[in-house]
């Protein structure tokens, strides 16, 4: 309940007048807050209902270990596609073996990302046996898709192996042809992210494990041959892989 505090009548007349004005103003503000703002809030809520996204937004139904996602528009299916590292999180494995032997999972959305449906995995085999794929990134250039993904032969119980950056091309997002391993700053690079610069050149940021897991950078005109920058893009302590993006006219990483 709102109430008006009594003014001290022992104050001088001028002081009593000032206090009365302040008290009246405060009372008006309370009345506005009490009667006007709730109705406005209710009106906004009813006219613009918000969609509550599920938490988590997506769970891989096979291994429950979706990681390192990249989202791309699929014009053939008229839907958004999410490609990700399919970590085997629900498998009882020794140490970090659930992070190896991973495929690249695919999920699609026809409602602008509000919900996702599992579609399977990409066929990227280079060698026989069970091998490891991590952290995909995709760009579209000159009529075809380019997929850059980490490749590690075999499966391990502990962190190790020699990760290489593999380059694939395809006319759609299902069928991929292996092109080459990209030569970058070392033979142990992971987590690539790409953007095309205003000059038309492509820039790749990635993590170099031989340099303390810092972010390095390379540029290319054709997405095939790459010129590595000798200086780190992000130095300092070890950190997770970068993700480059554009927003509001700015480029971030």
From TrEMBL:
InterPro entries linked: Glyco_hydro_beta-prop_sf (IPR023296)
Tree of life domain: Bacteria
Name of the featured protein: Glycosyl hydrolase family 32 N-terminal domain-containing protein
Naturally occurring in which organism (per UniProt): Larkinella insperata
């Amino acid at each position: 309940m709102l109430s008006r505090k009594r003014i001290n009548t022992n104050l001088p007349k001028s002081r009593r007048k000032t206090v009365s004005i302040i008290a009246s103003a405060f009372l008006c503000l309370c009345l506005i807050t009490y009667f006007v703002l709730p109705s406005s809030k209710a009106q906004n809520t009813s006219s613009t209902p918000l969609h509550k996204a599920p938490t988590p937004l997506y769970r891989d139904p096979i291994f429950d270990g979706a990681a390192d996602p990249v989202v791309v528009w699929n014009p053939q299916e008229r839907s958004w596609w999410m490609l990700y590292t399919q970590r085997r999180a629900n498998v009882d494995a020794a140490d970090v073996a659930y992070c190896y032997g991973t495929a690249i999972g695919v999920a699609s959305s026809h409602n602008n990302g509000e919900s996702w449906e599992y579609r399977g995995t990409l066929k990227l085999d280079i060698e026989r046996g069970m091998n490891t794929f991590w952290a995909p990134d995709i760009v579209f250039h000159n009529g075809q898709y380019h997929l850059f993904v980490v490749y590690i032969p075999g499966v391990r119980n502990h962190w190790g192996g020699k990760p290489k950056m593999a380059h694939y091309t395809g006319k759609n997002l299902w069928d991929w042809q292996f092109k080459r391993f990209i030569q970058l700053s070392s033979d142990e690079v992971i987590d690539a992210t790409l953007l095309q610069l205003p000059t038309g050149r492509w820039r790749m940021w990635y993590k170099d494990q031989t340099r303390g897991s810092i972010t390095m950078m390379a540029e290319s005109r054709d997405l095939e041959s790459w010129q590595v920058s000798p200086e780190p893009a992000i130095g300092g302590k070890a950190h997770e892989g970068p993700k480059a993006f554009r927003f509001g006219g700015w480029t971030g990483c």
